[in-house]
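User: Can you write out an input/output pair for a complex, sequences first and structure second?

Assistant: Here is one pair. Inputs:
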Amino acid sequence: MNKRLLIAQGGGPTAVINQTLVGAVFEAQRQGFSEIYGARHGVRGIIDRQFIDLGRETPTRLERVAYTPSSALGSTRDKPDAAYCARILEVLKEKQIDHFFYIGGNDSADTVRLVSEAAEQSGYPLCALHLPKTVDNDLVGNDHTPGYASAARYITQTLMGADLDNRALPGVYLAVIMGRHAGFLTGAAAMARHYPDDGPHLLYLPERTFDMDRFLADVDQIYTRLGRCVVALSEGIHDASGEPIVTRLIQAEKDAHGNVQLSGTGALADLLSTTLREKLGLKRVRGDTLGYPQRSFFGCYSQVDAQEAREVGEYAVQCAMAGQRAQSIALQRVGDYAVSYTLIPLTTVAAQTRVVADDWITAAGNDVTPAFCHWLRPLLGSELPVPGHIV
Amino acid sequence: MNKRLLIAQGGGPTAVINQTLVGAVFEAQRQGFSEIYGARHGVRGIIDRQFIDLGRETPTRLERVAYTPSSALGSTRDKPDAAYCARILEVLKEKQIDHFFYIGGNDSADTVRLVSEAAEQSGYPLCALHLPKTVDNDLVGNDHTPGYASAARYITQTLMGADLDNRALPGVYLAVIMGRHAGFLTGAAAMARHYPDDGPHLLYLPERTFDMDRFLADVDQIYTRLGRCVVALSEGIHDASGEPIVTRLIQAEKDAHGNVQLSGTGALADLLSTTLREKLGLKRVRGDTLGYPQRSFFGCYSQVDAQEAREVGEYAVQCAMAGQRAQSIALQRVGDYAVSYTLIPLTTVAAQTRVVADDWITAAGNDVTPAFCHWLRPLLGSELPVPGHIV
């Protein structure tokens, strides 16, 4: 029996999403799939019939792609509805695709669900699997998701350097970090600390209401004690009504999912910097919005993350061989530290958002707990740099 | 004869400024200096008498410091005048310091000049040397300066990733890069290209007048051809009158040198993004201001840069042993590729600014030339990542 696989990548790129792609390609070849296609730009490339024959790529080239950040097939922000998914199914039938892997976040899981349902309704035998990736780590049912750890490592190394810079030229430094609803990436800033009084000194996650007066008091306290202060905060911090702090300022652009654009603007850092200068009379305040390098800087990744992302691709093929049809791959933690791969229902993941657990955020709401750091540490991989100080 | 050395670090941190510090300490120990002190926070720590006995640091600790970014002794933005330098000399006399090394940029060279003059006038025998560092590469009399190549490498890897991200999710991406008057760092973005049509597609350096209409036409042309466009530009881009573009927008903060603060704000990227949306009707425009990670990200440096920075420290001690008194260390290129170290007059470097040569910028003023890339390539060190594409 011929097996024909189509793979696509959706949503924001990560440093290791191509590992998953390449893992699936190699394992599908090993398992005797007759055709392995990639769709350009996610679901958009399916309905546009922009297919690439991945079986023609050499192993050497694919290995290089695996270690290249961003989505090698291209991605999309399209969020298909049932009608869009019916068109996807139409193309799958036309191309005689009986296996469809979509590598993406919770929206991509929802797409797989819709396509699966359409296939089932029309009696078309289709194995459709969702392969997880997201820098935000916001997928329900997973200990963590491929892509997160590499972005977390980038943030750790950035904040290590930012803290050293702030020691040399003291003042207040703000780092605005990706994360609309989930503060996992901002939490990773905590891993930059090695010694007492190392920064970042304050972390603000979108899981807690951001209170400007409280923020000012927090910074004032640290600055008074140390003569400097390093702050990490999520782009998605919001007031008690749920309104993002940044939308107080800017004409917000909305994407196809109705989400306000938070990345790619320095407005939040600038707003908070100005507020600190005006309210606390601080002279040297700097704010960086870490931006796209968090997910696509070329040359900083977690080897643990890369390996797990690869295995997700391999595992998906093995699930397909075992007759699985409409599921999401999930990562579970086994011991300290290993992972196992499993299948969970698409509805567990689809359009759901996991956030940082309550007991991973301190009572004061301005830091993560040791339990969070214990959870994160093994994901970052080995050979993290360690700063030397002159004391 | 006892030899007593004081070392200080001034201005903005770099990824390798501690290499220079550690190179000087080890070589001074080897040459039998009796005391080796470090001053906290540059010249500020001298007049505040905040000295550290560097002879007490273990080699292991110093090696770790050498590979740690930022200024381990702390830095300062103080720009001493003659009166301030007279106070510095007073402390040097009091502590019986007969060797003073100041690691810094052109302002630090000017400080060394003033202190040297004061010492000479008062008949105090002082060897005062300026040891170069700057991420901006704006020191006259040098082929390049320690610190630049590591920041350039960070920018190269950032733009490599940004271009891959922009391929996956096409639109316009702007990266605002450090550099007030000198565009060497923005030029480094060109090294991110490997294949035809790789980004960045446009580079704007402060050596050329920034014309908004021209910019819009440039972006429009690239976007029309490729459906995407990646732009790298210096924070210091300015209009024909020399007024920075960013000051059209923000209440600019000025530092002690009278310079407008350009870093640590996302205003320029936001201004240009908004203009592109409004004037060209583009939907997806993102702007990142790369910020402090350019100079202090922990884990990205050029090994060539690190080694040269170390040798600058060693060479300074050797110059002192040879009886040199008031000079600046400079790097000269020998062959392709090696460097030699030499001494140049402090007045050659002090308060001067080197900018990118005319023939290293294209006639259209929106890119660097192959000659610039040929000059830069060996500085970046080995093992730069190479992207894999699926074609």
